[in-house]
Amino acid sequence: MKANSERVKGFDLRISCDAARQIRQHARASSKAEVCGVLIGSEEGSVTSVQASIPGANAVQGGSHVTFTQDTWEHIYRIKDSDYPEARIVGWYHSHPGFGVFLSDHDAFIHKNFFSAPRQVAWVYDPHSDEEGCFGWMGTKLERLPRIVLVDAKGGEGAGETGKPEPLLLGSDDSDADAKIELGSSPSEARAMLSAGITVLSYLCIMVLGFFLCWYFYPRYVLVPVDPRTGQILLNAPPELYNEGSNGMDGGNPNNPNKPGNPALPLANPTPAPHGLKGKP
Ligand SMILES: [Zn+2]
Q1: C-alpha R_g of the chain
Q2: Are strands 148-151 and 12-16 parallel, antiparallel or unpaired?
Q3: Which tens digits make up the pLDDT trace of 208-229?
Q4: CATH T-level topology, domain 2-151
């Protein structure tokens, strides 16, 4: 254990914020398949520094692991020789989309075969949980490093020296409506609420329109008193006979000359009547 802790003390990994960001962006571009690449930097004494990364194009992605093919290496060395001629390949990275940070047996196989130098590391990032970790050689064993140092290239920049103002959240129009939305909720929440409101309103409009269309076009029954012998419309029938469903048609009115069972005033054939006929004598 003493030897191990000495090795941990003596193994420092420094990674630039830019390199870490490049790795995250590469991994987030592929939310299901793994991506991989190499880490570019330098090894000085007990410190491994990662300055940049090169995405591994044409890497074979098989299920939950990646493989560095001949094409991948050719692509990586082409970029390294042109962009980072003085730097070294100090390790590799790959993503574990949705299944956490660890080194599988296959990952360990890759590391032992391609990145076996004592200070070369394996960076693993899960774009779903944003968890990240780095593995390196502790003697003959591969272990997760307990300490990672993020190096900001803009470190030392004085506060207020950039002269940049704080950006306004919703453009430069400082109307009262915008101010209220910002106070109550974030702009994205306000947009989501506005979108939901518009959706509900549009559904309501469609329902109301459908209701009126049905009301206008659907055939309605109109009761017209006719003479059963001649089939002629009775022009002088009592006005209550024109009222749909009124007592005038069901014999409830004792003064009604058309008693129940008396077929003197049968209903007219309930065919669709043109709109507006109702009430005509
Ligand atoms: Zn893996």
Answers
A1: 41
A2: parallel
A3: 888 778 788 877 666 777 777 8
A4: Cytidine Deaminase; domain 2 (3.40.140)
* Amino acid residing at 212: F
Structure token pair of residue 249: 């048609």
**Is the Cβ–Cβ distance between 107 and 65 less than 8 Å?**
yes
156 Cα distance to chain centroid = 38
Ligand 1: centre distance to CA 51 (Å): 22
**Using CA atoms, how far apart are residues 256 and 240, in angstroms rounded to an integer?**
10
**Average pLDDT value over all residues in the chain:** 78
- The pair phi, psi for residue 184, each rounded to 5°, is -75, -40
Q: CA 189 from chain center: how many Å?
A: 14
Interval between CA 4 and ligand 1 midpoint (Å)? 24
**237 is written with which tokens?**
């029938």
Question: Separation of 102 CA from ligand 1 center, angstroms?
Answer: 7
CA 60 / ligand 1 centre spacing (Å): 13
Q: Measured in angstroms, how far is the CA atom of residue 123 from the centroid of ligand 1? A: 10
Can you tell me whether residue 243 is helix, strand or coil?
Answer: coil
Q: Domain residue spans in the chain?
A: 2-151, 176-217, 221-281
Note if the pTM is more than 0.90.
no
| Helices (H), ranges, the chain | 2-10, 17-28, 70-83, 105-114, 176-184, 187-217
Please tell me the distance between residue 96's alpha carbon and the centre of ligand 1 in angstroms.
6
Q: How far apart, in Å, are the Cα atoms of 21 and each of 9, 51, 58, 113, 148?
A: 26, 11, 21, 27, 15
Distance 164 CA to ligand 1 centre (A): 41
135 C-alpha to ligand 1 centroid (Å): 11
All residues at 6 or more sequence positions from 128 whose CB lies less than 8 Å from its CB, including other chains: 31, 97, 98
